[in-house]
Amino acid sequence: MTRRLLLPLGIMGTVGLSLLPFLWFMLSSFKSQREIEAVPPGWCPSGSLEFYRSALFSHHLLDYVGNSVVVAGSTTAVALLLAIPAAYALARLTIPGKQGILALLLCVSMFPQMAIAGPVWRLLDALGGLNHRWGVVLPYVALTLPLAVWILASFFAELPAELEDAARIDGCGRWTTLLRVTLPLAAPGIFTAAILILIYAWNEFFFALLILTQPEQQTLPVGIALFQGEFTMPWGELAAASVIATLPLIAVVLMCQRWIVSGLSAGAVKG
Predict the structure, then answer these.
(1) How many CB atoms lie under 10 A from the CB of residue 246?
(2) Number of neighbouring beta carbons within 10 Å of residue 190
(3) Helix (H, G, I), strand (E, B) or coil at 199
(4) What is the DSSP secondary-structure string of 139-195?
């Protein structure tokens, strides 16, 4: 009985501690400047929307939101277009050293960004990609593609091959079988990979700061980090901007949670 009570209490405590910083920032976004500077600080906000107005109009937050939507959406679409056929080939074709390739993909997905920052910057400088949104999409795709291929290959391998054999007996070619039979069955795994790619591209800071130095091209994490106050750090505007930046991800995860849970539990992350 004690264990049955301790487990949910432990889970609730862990979740509460994880959410506490975001809760504090969210409450701060509805405070006035006097409440922000109060000593000791209070929990209850007055409900002011002044920081939201300042973040949206004085700091041009919507421009950063638009850039993040373009960058994260493009990264997700391109990475999935490349990852799906590559993962399908690894899952279905007879390829020597297939397990070694999957292990190598998993290792490559864990490369630290700092290790490739110099070569990426030089390559984009030669291609003219610096201070262009497509210039930051390229390294994002390169960094997320190995993990996407690994997740999708594991998921495709879990699907029954007999369904594809039956489709080919009915006259479907390899691509038709992939598009009409395999992809609908693999939708949970594709959603899982897409969400992981989208979250990475939406939150990534280092390459965005390195490649996008012009304010009109910068994404949300860089734009928020570079908020400047006249005399003090604009904590209220930072809190409001952080809430606005987090809400789209929460909405996407809530809308797609059924597919995400299904993808994770159906073998999308199994080796």
Answers:
(1) 16
(2) 22
(3) helix
(4) HHHHHHHHHHHHHHHHHHHHS-HHHHHHHHHTT--HHHHIIIIIHHHTHHHHHHHHH
Q: What is the pLDDT of residues 198-229, one digit of tens each?
A: 999 999 999 999 999 888 899 999 998 888 76
pLDDT of residue 58 exceeding 70, the answer is yes
DSSP string, 90-121: HHHS--TTHHHHHHHHHHHTT--HHHHHHHHH
Summarised one tens digit per residue, pLDDT across range 19-42 is 898 888 889 999 988 888 888 888
Cα–Cα–Cα angle for 197, 55, 67, rounded to 5 degrees: 35
93's tokens: 């074709």
pLDDT band at 269 (very low <50, low <70, confident <90, very high): very low
* 228: helix, strand or coil: coil
Residues 6 or more apart in contact with residue 25 via CB below 8 angstroms: 238, 239, 242, 243
Instruction: Say yes or no to pLDDT of 266 above 80.
Output: no
Q: Are 27 and 45 in contact (CB under 8 A)?
A: yes
Q: How far apart (Å, rounded) are the C-alpha atoms in residues 123 and 216?
A: 22
- Residue 72, pLDDT above cutoff 90: yes
* pLDDT for 69 beyond 50: yes
DSSP state at residue 41: -
User: Interhelix angle for 133-158 vs 98-108, to 10°?
Assistant: 140
- What distance in Å separates the CA atoms of residue 52 and residue 262, rounded to the nearest whole number? 36
